[in-house]
Design brief:
mainly beta, 3 helices, four-stranded antiparallel β-sheet, five-stranded mixed β-sheet
Length: 410
């Protein structure tokens, strides 16, 4: 179980000063918009454009106008088997694999019913019965089923045939183990896998052979973890341990080097070690969701980390610092599921105004909110006139304010 959400009373002052909450203006969806519960564990956009949100109390389908909620019913064997949703994955034919606290379900899109006997579905696709950890779709439209202890199986949508890849002592070019915990496809179509022992591998889907293997995480810690991974557009691999406060790890396959992102270093410093997801936005910035520290933004060009955190006085800021899920859909929209405040979303394709305002206790914020005059100087900086709070100079490059006020003695 995840740690309970706590107030961030101990965040260092620099985190407040570096926070970019004013740069990102989020919209929100919660129980007042029809969401079944404000704890959002998992997010998926399906083939038809619906957004799916798995909560601790029901599965929600969103069509940009409203929600349709699917809940367990003891009297209906075609309902979902549990209301606590932990994972949603696309399947062939617009169906969905839905993991709950009580096991897997097949959502049948044509009937909007659930098949609880997922072994029957697997058998129909020549897949072995077992615990499915994740399902992904590759560039060719084929589906890869990652099992908890049976390796990975590829289902071809073109031929309807299935092929398995699991550990074999006699196969030198096969997977290192059969205990997978995470699987992703990169932009070139290669399949990346992380095993529970920390071994990371890259597979050529055409041949099924392992092209690359890294044992560094396994060398650092022999403990078995439920790892997850994300491959960014530069081909570097982000890794983190689900529900374990180990921070994030960045693997550069070209150099074979792993960098740790954590609160204490010695790698890159972030503000919280409990990582819940990683995505990359349209500008190349890495978004690292955390359970207590909001979102950490890593700029790969500068190596700097900044923060998106909740501001109770700003209704357009991040709703909560306990992030449970973070997802970017195919249109570039970023969706953030929180612990108890529903969904935040951000459309990168829509230009938004940055909002500067006065914040009590933050000397770097706008000195006063009652603004009535502007002029831009030859260097592109702004001089801001206020009603009763003097003259403000804004350095655009440094993003800093300086306040000039009347002094009777000067």
């Amino acid at each position: 179980m995840r740690r309970p959400a706590l107030l961030l009373l101990a965040i260092l002052p620099c985190l407040v000063l570096c926070a970019q909450a004013g740069k990102y203006s989020f919209s929100k969806l919660d129980i007042y918009n029809g969401l079944s519960h404000n704890q959002v564990n998992t997010i998926l956009k399906d083939n038809t454009g619906f957004l799916w949100f798995g909560t601790m109390s029901g599965l929600n389908r969103y069509d940009s106008y409203g929600f349709k909620v699917f809940r367990h019913s003891a009297a209906d064997t075609t309902s979902i088997n549990d209301n606590y949703i932990s994972g949603i994955y696309q399947l062939p034919g617009n169906d969905l694999w839905v993991n709950t606290r009580s096991g897997g379900n097949i959502y049948q899109s044509k009937t909007e019913k659930f098949e609880r006997n997922f072994s029957r579905y697997l058998l129909q696709h020549s897949l072995p019965s077992g615990t499915i950890r994740s399902v992904i779709r590759d560039r060719q439209g084929d589906f890869w089923f990652a099992y908890d202890s049976l390796g990975v199986y590829r289902y071809s949508t073109a031929t309807g045939k299935t092929k398995g890849y699991s550990y074999s002592p006699s196969a030198n070019n096969g997977p290192a183990t059969s205990q997978l915990s995470g699987i992703r496809a990169d932009a070139q179509g290669y399949i990346w896998m992380v095993h529970r022992n920390g071994i990371v591998e890259k597979m050529d889907p055409a041949s099924g052979k392992i092209m690359y293997r890294n044992n560094e995480l396994n060398r650092r810690n022999a403990t078995l973890f439920n790892y997850d991974l994300f491959v960014d557009r530069e081909g570097q691999v982000w890794l983190w341990t689900l529900n374990e406060a180990n921070g994030a790890f960045l693997l550069d396959p070209a150099k074979g080097v792993i960098t740790n992102f954590s609160e204490t270093g010695p790698g890159v410093r972030i503000n919280n070690n409990l990582i819940t997801g990683v995505i990359q936005d349209g500008k190349g910035i890495i978004w690292i969701g955390t359970d207590h520290g909001g979102i950490n933004l890593f700029d790969k060009t500068t190596g700097r980390v900044s923060f998106v955190v909740s501001d109770p006085k700003d209704p357009r800021s991040l709703a909560q610092n306990s992030i449970y899920s973070i997802y970017k859909d195919d249109s570039g929209m970023i969706w953030v599921g929180t612990f108890k405040q529903g969904i935040n979303y951000l459309d990168e394709n829509i230009a938004r105004f940055a909002h500067y305002r006065h914040k009590d206790g933050d000397p770097s914020s706008l000195p006063a909110d009652d603004v009535n005059a502007f002029v831009e100087d030859g260097n592109g900086n702004l001089w801001i006139g206020t009603n009763g709070s003097g003259l403000i100079f804004f350095d655009r490059k440094k993003q800093q304010f300086r306040n000039y006020r009347h002094d009777p003695a000067n």
